[in-house]
Specification:
Helix 2 runs antiparallel to helix 3, helix 4 crosses helix 7 and helix 5 crosses helix 7. With about 160 residues, this protein is mainly alpha-helical. It is globular and about 50 Å long. The protein starts with 12 loop residues before the first helix and ends in a 21-residue tail after the last helix. The chain is built from 7 helices and 2 strands; from the N terminus they run αβααβαααα. It has one domain. It has a two-stranded antiparallel ribbon with strand order 1-2.
Length: about 160
Amino acid sequence: MPLTADQVPPPSEDATLKGPVVQVADKETLQKRLESYYAGIDRMDLLEAYNEAYLSVAGKSMKARQLLVEVFSAQRAPEMERKIPRLKRDDEETFKLLCNFFADESEGRQAREVLLRIIRHQEDIWYGVSRKVLQARIDEGKPLRLLHYSELPDDLKVED
């Protein structure tokens, strides 16, 4: 006998925050969409800085959260290394940017609430990790520098 809706346990928070599997657009399509997006916000300088890392995910399939991690990672290194002024974080803008990566953009727009929840969750994780690493470096009297993921203590690593 099948379970009724009230008998089915809710999905774990962890599972829902990984999101749907995303087929990322091919390289040419992604390049055109990103050029249009960054031209629209008058920040082609950012596309120049992020483009190579962005295009590294072209044509791949991955969970939405992993795609978001790849996008954020593509942005973080140039921001730190080249002292590029960071855009003010805006969940709606991040959502619009993320939709450009979907092979079928309408799939991204249809998953709006799920993607916004993933974006907010990932931002919380990254800012929490940043604060902990900063505090640990200060407590140890060490100079501040950009840490590679492999240098993070295990309790600060995010498992996918």
